[in-house]
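Sanity check. The docking grid for flavin-adenine dinucleotide depends on where the pocket ends up, so I'm generating a full predicted complex first rather than guessing from homology. Inputs follow.
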Amino acid sequence: MSTREYPLGISFEFFPPNTDAGREKLLLARDALAERRPRFFSVTYGAGGSTQARTHNTVRQVRECGITTAPHLSCIGSEKAQMRELLEGYRADGIDSLVALRGDLPSGMGGVGELRYANELVEFIRAETGDHFEIAVAAYPEAHPQAPSFEHDLQNFARKMQAGADLAISQYFFSAEAYFHFVERARALGVEAPIVPGIMPITNYTKLARFSDACGADIPRWIRKQLEAYGDDSASIQAFGEEVVSNLCRRLLDGGAPGLHFYTLNQSAPTLRILDNLDC
Ligand code: FAD
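Predicted complex below; grid placement will be based on this.
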């Protein structure tokens, strides 16, 4: 039972599993995490070649426990007619929260489509469906990897919020200062909506390093060095990772973060250990 209260509470992100075993594992994780009474779950789209139909099916399964579940959707490479149909399908199925993204085109794939950036997608969703959906968008405290500068990215972030997003969820990071700096700068540009930090539990150094390089998340040198030194000692990696990420969460919440969004990778244990450390 939570002893801490935050305006947006906690939320957990899953990805659509590929196999029956993966589905079972996801539903076990969902059940364990549901006990922490999250505000919502979300289900990613696109990574690893998954389709929007698989995201939708996973949303249906995850929400059977009664907790609001938001599909992620991305607009790059799509036409407006496709997006309209997708939104209608979600609305008809009782879905009222979305995570709206530009996404990335798989390399070598065709044109960008009619909606080029997330701000255009948010505008389109509002024009098509009014206030039906609560819309979350992505934020990058350490700048999006393709952005020519932090300022440029920040302006685009503000544009996306002003297009009608209700909240933002950040890319993960390990520097609380980067988050607080981003929030302060966004507020100065008139962004009032909550910006929820995205939290990545540390469980495997090799995967984390690869993923962080791709998405532009910085692993500070002191963390990298310590994780490298543990080599194959996964127990030590997990113990150290748990301490680092729990301390980060504490600093974020103490500093006014409105909630925490966990990238669970369909595992409950690492996230639950962090929540236990936080009394959440
Ligand atoms: P945008 O906000 O459109 O920004 C993309 C880039 O374009 C940035 O560099 C920005 O500065 C620039 N830009 C934005 N608007 C404009 C404009 N109007 N004019 C010029 N430049 C502009 N990926 C997946 O494949 N599936 C997922 O489910 C998924 N979920 C995610 C969830 C979260 C919380 C986060 C943080 C990321 C997620 N991603 C996911 C990754 C995301 O798709 C990529 O980071 C993608 O490259 C950018 O998407 P975006 O919505 O942030 O794009």
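Relevant for the grid: The domain at 10-277 is CATH 3.20.20.220 (TIM Barrel).
Also worth noting: The two ends are 7 Å apart (CA to CA).
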